[in-house]
Amino acid sequence: MDRQIQELLDKTEIRELVNAYASAADRHDQERMRALYHEDAIDEHGPFSQGSAMEFVDRLPEIQAPMEILQHHITTVNLKLSGDRAEGEVYVLALHKVTGSGDMLVGGRYLDKYAKRDGVWKFLHRALVADWFYAVEPSEVNLGHPFVTGAHLGRPGADDPSYGFFTLFRRGER
């Protein structure tokens, strides 16, 4: 029974890691993103990264600069554990509103390897698989539409309404 409970706890921590990645990416929070990878981790992110995850995180301000809106929606999460290592196939739908390039919707998967070191699960290797891509040029996103009048509007970085709203979620943490 203890093994099953530990496996359940580990899987919960890994799911939280996966969700923290989506949130950090969407908020352009490089400090938080860096904390999700082991120092020796690898990230394969198409044209943006094919090596060191830390180098990928260092490049994120440049990569994300034209991205007015990012939304990563995590759907199916398949995990397999073996002690202090795990693998995951994580399905994602990611919307990108990019200045000058329109709206891009990517359907894909992350092929992940995780390692638990010093009691903490982090990414050891993350590879993006693009299963489909849909683009609309120019953008059709309309945040001025009456349907969203008066709603909080999301934005990259610490100006996002979530940073002022929450007291339990902290910048730079999972």
TrEMBL record:
<dbReference type="InterPro" id="IPR037401">
    <property type="entry name" value="SnoaL-like"/>
</dbReference>
<dbReference type="Pfam" id="PF13577">
    <property type="entry name" value="SnoaL_4"/>
</dbReference>
<dbReference type="InterPro" id="IPR032710">
    <property type="entry name" value="NTF2-like_dom_sf"/>
</dbReference>
<feature type="domain" description="SnoaL-like">
    <location>
        <begin position="6"/>
        <end position="126"/>
    </location>
</feature>
<protein>
    <submittedName>
        <fullName>Nuclear transport factor 2 family protein</fullName>
    </submittedName>
</protein>
